Amino acid sequence: MLNAPGGTTMETDENMLDIDTYAREAAEHRHYLHAHPEPSFEKQGTQRYITDCLHNLGLNPSPIAGTGVTATIAGTQGPANGKVLLLRADIDALRLTEETDLPFASQNKGVMHACGHDGHTGTLLAVAHWLVDHRDQFGGTVKLLFQPAEEISPGGAQPCVKEGVLQNPDVTFAFGMHLWNTLEFGKVGLRAGPLLAEADRFELTVTGKGTHAAAPHLGADPIVAAAQIVTSLQTIVSRETNPLESRVVTIGTIDGGSAFNIIPQSVHMTGTLRALSREDAELGAASLRRIVSHTAEALGTTAAIDYEFGYPPVINSCESVAFLRPILQQAVGEGNVVEPEISMGGEDFAYYLQQVPGAFVFLGTRNVAKGLTAPHHNPKFTFDEDIFPIALSIFVAVVRRYLS
Q: Keyword annotations for this protein (predicted)?
């Protein structure tokens, strides 16, 4: 075992000694991608970059889901009983103005990689290079997926599935990993059962009767109704959710009114409901409809509701976690594989896990000593690039064990 930054240990045998070379390559890819971010389904430049990198490795990549890329690498170690391992990286950036002062900061104003997807893509490109150089270390097939549009619902995973990413050849195991700034550097978060929540989206339009602000009795105030709705919706969590279960209801935007002395005709709101099962999401959605409709009616207004069920929860099977645990423990050290807290964030990797066995894990990148603690989706977000050797070691270990 080799000591890594933060006290993490990594597997070191004759086949892993050159991992640092590929880790430096991952960082170079990350720097380019971070400087040239593109949001969901607007990644022609990112797609070209990934495609060119894979072509340079002698692979034959194909576009998928508009701006995604997929490619396969066959091992030469021998037959692996038809096993096909899917490795996925998400590639989209966020519409956010960067405030990091990194030397490779975003050159695309108003867009930045604030969730680690540049690191995911850089890692998988470097993993592709390692696999091409070490085909004799695995059998079967590795299918690489550089997936677009993880950040927006309905996302890119469903189109990838519909376009056959899990077929030809048929995937038998899917593995995904997210760099995670809320987990201590070098720790691997592995959990059976729900890991990430269902992420639903809704829009509400409250319509009243506009009037002069000095004569509220002549109208029906949608702002007052909207305020009551925001407050009342929190009872879905505080009074309609089992205290041992989890739900989140958040109003993210409120738009209404044009002047200080006018009661407007309508108010528009958007928000999200999160739950750890589709059943709980459906119950929450029914409660939301009831509360919004009745609160609006009680205040002399009406409400239109547009509710969209989003990504299902990410659920790791017990069997997949049991298979991965010893692999990860050998790769990073037994004490560094931990059970993470469930996140109420969403991830469309869930769609792959609905179709094939597999698992999704977190890799900790939080480094207090270096001041790298900004949360995801924050303009100051970045991560400790010393994580790349560990990230590559994990992917390589999974490939070698699953496809041996």
A: Hydrolase, Manganese, Metal-binding
Tens of pLDDT, residue by residue over 132-176, are 999 999 999 999 999 999 998 888 999 999 999 999 999 999 999
Domains of the chain: 18-195+313-403 (3.40.630.10), 198-308 (3.30.70.360)
- Residues 354, 321: Cα–Cα separation, whole Å: 15
Q: Residue 294, annotated ligand binder? A: no
The answer to whether 377 is a known ligand-binding residue is yes
Residue among 318, 293, 323, 287 nearest 305 (CA): 293
Neighbours of 358 (CB within 10 A): 22
Known binder of ligand: residue 53?
Answer: no
Residue 178 annotated in ligand binding: yes
Whole-structure pTM value: 0.91
Q: Which helix (H) or strand (E) holds 202?
A: strand 198-207
- Please give the full DSSP string across 325-374, using - where no structure is assigned: HHHHHHHH-GGGEE-PPPB----TTHHHHTTS-EEEEEEEEEBTTTTB-P
Question: What dihedral angle (degrees, nearest 10) is formed by the CA atoms of 10, 13, 18, 23?
Answer: -20
302-312 burial, b if ≥16 CB within 10 A, otherwise e?
A: ebeeebebbbb
- The pairing of strands 84-90 and 141-147 is parallel
Identify whether the C-beta of residue 131 lies closer than 8 Å to the C-beta of residue 142.
yes
Question: What is the tens place of the pLDDT at every residue in 269-293?
Answer: 999 999 999 999 999 999 999 999 9
